[in-house]
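A.,

Following up on our hallway conversation. Structure tokens first:
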């Protein structure tokens, strides 16, 4: 059983964290009697590490949980012969048990498959944007600590850092973030302030919905564009970001570079 799964077993369905997708599916039973139902309705949850299913959305313990890593998801129209055959998909892993599900409609089944495949691709990715630059920055920080944050308490390893107001963030990062040009234009020749070419590297896009659980966190949805003000909490897995004039900390694992930049 992988790390974090033991905690997931003890958590009721409404209290799960890092949920990427959830909803009711019909799961095909391996052992159903003559009078038993072959397909049983289950509340299914996909997190960043595991797949769980419960008897219903209010259940206190899952009926089963397994690490999603090394599994693959694919549509499986052959599982049924009725009108819902195009709503079927299955999870496969060499040497392990396979799971077969029926969604409410074909689009929902495809969305489950897409979400799982996207997560697996992200888990197996060997390339992390700007990873080399981040390592160099961390080494420089170890050799020579910043002198421009005197009086600022370092974050506690047991809790995440406090959020900054817009004025504080601007004052702290004025030497780290290049000012945006006033004469920026988009491809149509219209004025477009706030997107200077040298600042494109600081724009990231949400890969999944993120709902804040603390006042200092910044909520966003999949596809939202977030401007990163600081990566000084990178070692804790958090960055300081801004969206719609709101500033807060965001989990870096939920973000991906918004623009592809050519390295010179």
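Then the amino acids I'd put at each of the 264 positions:
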């Amino acid at each position: 059983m992988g790390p974090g799964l033991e905690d997931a077993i003890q958590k009721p369905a409404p209290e799960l964290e890092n949920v990427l997708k959830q909803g009711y599916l019909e799961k095909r039973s391996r052992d159903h009697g003559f009078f038993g139902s072959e397909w049983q309705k289950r509340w299914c949850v996909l997190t960043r590490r595991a797949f769980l299913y419960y008897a219903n959305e209010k259940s206190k313990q899952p009926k089963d949980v397994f690490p999603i890593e090394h599994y693959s998801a694919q549509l499986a129209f052959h599982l049924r012969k009725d009108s819902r055959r195009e709503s079927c998909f299955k999870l496969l892993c060499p040497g392990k048990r396979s799971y077969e599900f029926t969604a409410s409609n074909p689009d929902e089944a495809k969305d489950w498959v897409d979400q799982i495949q996207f997560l697996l691709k992200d888990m197996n990715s060997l390339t992390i944007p700007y990873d080399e630059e981040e390592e160099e920055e961390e080494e420089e920080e170890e050799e020579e600590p910043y002198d421009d944050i005197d009086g600022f308490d370092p974050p506690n390893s047991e809790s995440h850092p406090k959020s900054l107001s817009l004025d504080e963030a601007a004052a702290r990062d004025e030497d780290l973030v290049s000012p945006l040009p006033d004469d920026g234009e988009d491809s149509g020749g219209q004025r477009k302030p706030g997107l200077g070419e040298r600042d494109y590297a600081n724009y990231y896009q949400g890969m999944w919905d993120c709902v804040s659980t603390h006042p200092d966190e910044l909520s966003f949805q999949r596809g939202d564009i977030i401007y990163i003000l600081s990566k000084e909490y990178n070692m804790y897995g958090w960055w300081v970001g801004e969206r719609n004039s709101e500033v807060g900390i965001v989990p870096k694992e939920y973000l991906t570079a918004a623009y592809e930049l050519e390295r010179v």
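The domain at 5-124 is CATH 2.30.29.30 (PH-domain like). Curious whether your intuition agrees with the design.

B.
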